[in-house]
Design goal:
Blueprint: H1 7-29, H2 34-53, H3 60-65
């Protein structure tokens, strides 16, 4: 019995899923009123940045180039 390759399916899902998630996120955030959206996005970007920097990538070199 010959096995079928799923490489094409996986690559399609790998670029469709992030696009769908981004569109849903944009639609949900666009429903927030302006002062609350600003505070939410500041906390969201701060959390994403700290998660990125704590990932270990380049270590101290990355901290030198992080925006302040």
């Amino acid at each position: 019995m010959q096995l079928h390759s799923t490489a094409e399916f996986q690559t399609t899902i790998q670029w469709i899923a992030p696009a769908i998630i981004a569109i849903v996120f944009i639609l949900l955030v666009s429903q927030m009123r302006e002062p609350n959206r600003r505070y939410f996005m500041a906390i969201f970007v701060g959390g994403a940045g700290s998660a990125y920097l704590s990932g270990g990538g380049f270590g101290k070199w990355e901290m030198a180039f992080a925006p302040r």
